[in-house]
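Hey team,

Filing this mostly as a record. A colleague (T.K.) asked me to run one chain through the structure pipeline before their review meeting, and I want the input and output archived in the tracker in case anyone asks later how it was produced. No errors, nothing strange. Just documentation.

Input sequence:
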Amino acid sequence: MSETIIATNLPPSTHSLAPLADASRHPHRPLLEDVHARKLQLRALLAVTLDEQGGVLRTQSQEMREGFLLACSVMGEEVRQLAQVLHVRLSASQAA
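Output structure:
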């Protein structure tokens, strides 16, 4: 299974980092990029659970499926934590 196949099954993202193109004007851009990258990685992982690709996952051993779901869970938690840090930093910068 190639990354190209996974990417074509994902709906297009409605979020863009284009408004933050100048990092010097937006100090939180690196953190935003981390959140965005992790989100896309998680979406790519979850895409393999759909359609024909999901059939491949279902044929794997219970241990493999559990490992896959654990990886998705860990990545989801990373997205949540990064988003929380970003929220705190944005709130602090707006209050200043």
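Quick notes for T.K.: The mean pLDDT is 77. Residues 27-95 form one domain.
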